[in-house]
Sequence to fold (249 residues):
Amino acid sequence: MIEVINLNFGYDENLVLEDINFNYKSSDFLCVIGPNGGGKSTFLKLLLGLLNPKNGTILLDGKTPKEFCKNVGYVPQHIPINSTFPLSVLEVVLMGRIDQKRFGFYSKFDKEKALKALKIVGMGDFSKRRISLLSGGQRQRVYIARAICSDAKILFLDEPTASIDARGQVEIYEILKNINQSGKGILMISHDLNIAINYASKVAYINKNLVMHEIDQGKKDNFLAHLENSHGHFCDVELILKECSCKKF
Fold:
């Protein structure tokens, strides 16, 4: 689905990304990691067509990023919320169908799509709730639903679990895994490898150059599922040590 060939990008004469070669297919759950300033967000913006490469080629299903953009669902890291504006959860998700509006109105089909997307992310009971009243993790679920509602072939996510506790992160990763298994591509920037490594089929490390790691999920245990189902608490300590209080792992 995505092919990047000999990509270079920089501001003025300073290269941020150098000699990037990269292949991705929609069955992959790809996490992009790397240090701050290493070029992760720049790489994502290039794939979205928000930036143009200095040289090299980017193709998504054989098209340029700008040609393919309607097939991409994008979930940014932060979306400012005006607490005084009474925007409902359903209205936010319907924004994913904004190109389908007819005479300024959403159709019954659009609303059914939005409600289905909310159900997929576990937010079906919150459709009438004001978006400003939700927690950070709940809002991220809503933004993922908006991306799903757009009929995107692939979702690009920029640190969707930032500032969310470990349990909330696992819940969002589980949602993304299910979306990926339904046939949509997942490409996300992640700040926490401890969780990402349990879900990704590939991990790309970017620090000016790109190094791809293949992850064999067949070798993974069900440690995260055990933590979520059997423990009232878990945090980064359990994730790093790969050990819980009942000593089953």
